[in-house]
Amino acid sequence: MPGDTYRRIYAVVRRIPRGKVATYGQVATLAGLTKAARQVGYALHGLSVGTALPWHRVINSAGRISLPPEAGGIEQRLRLLKEGVLVDEAGRIPLRRYQWRSRARH
Fold first, then answer.
1. Strand 58-59 to strand 22-23: parallel, antiparallel, or no bridges (unpaired)?
2. For 90, what's the count of Cα atoms within 13 Å in the CB-facing half-sphere?
3. Is the Cα dihedral 37, 100, 67, 70 positive or negative?
4. Distance (Å, whole) CA 75 – CA 80
5. Kindly report the CA angle at 103 between 67 and 53, in degrees rounded to 5?
6. What is the pTM of this model?
7. How far apart are the C-alpha atoms of 76 and 74, rounded to whole Å?
């Protein structure tokens, strides 16, 4: 069972809408974890196969898929394409067009 930190990360990832992406750092900030982008990566890496959490919507700050093809990068690319997100052959996503802009909760 993940600790409170992972629960906070997963809660943010669940909010990323279909057809949008967020960076690891963005997820960390929204989860209240300043400068913890790497922690987001660890949390997502620990997910079970077949999870319903939209992990594929999280990319690096350069607008690229970080996972190597053999470690899930191909699956991530295909999932994003299926949602209408443009991903080039190098795994780049135009952040200006697809980055999620979260609204603060009240």
1. parallel
2. 6
3. positive
4. 9
5. 35
6. 0.91
7. 5
pLDDT, tens digit (0-9, with 9 covering 90-100), for 17-62: 999 999 999 999 999 998 999 999 999 998 988 899 999 999 999 9
Token reading at 69: 């093809």
**Tokens representing 60?**
């690096």
Between 103 and 89, the more confident residue is 89
Amino acid at 30: L
Residues 6+ apart with CB under 8 A from 94: 63, 86
Q: Which of 24, 34, 99, 6 is nearest to 67 (CA)?
A: 24
What separation in angstroms does the CA of 59 have from each of 13, 30, 33, 67? 11, 15, 17, 9
